[in-house]
Design brief:
By secondary structure, the protein is mainly α. It has three helices and no strands. The protein is elongated and about 45 Å long.
Length: 56
C-alpha cells in the first residue's frame, strides 16, 4: 500500500480501518441491537450470520 499511495496515505488508511474496528467492538460491548435494525440484519446475513442466532 505504501508503494502505491505513499506513507502518509497508508497511515491514514490504517487509522480509518482501526477506527471502524474500534467502533464495532464498542457497539458490541454496549449491546447494540442487531435483530431490531433491518439494515444490520442484512449486513449480518451478507457476512454469513443467521440473525436468529444473534443474541441481540
Amino acid at each position: 500500500m505504501t508503494d502505491r499511495l505513499g506513507d502518509a496515505a497508508a497511515e491514514r488508511a490504517a487509522g480509518v480501518a482501526a477506527s471502524f474496528q474500534m467502533m464495532n467492538r464498542m457497539l458490541d460491548a454496549v449491546g447494540a441491537p442487531v435483530r431490531t435494525k433491518p439494515h444490520l440484519v442484512d449486513v449480518a446475513v451478507e457476512m454469513g450470520f443467521d440473525p436468529a442466532d444473534l443474541t441481540r
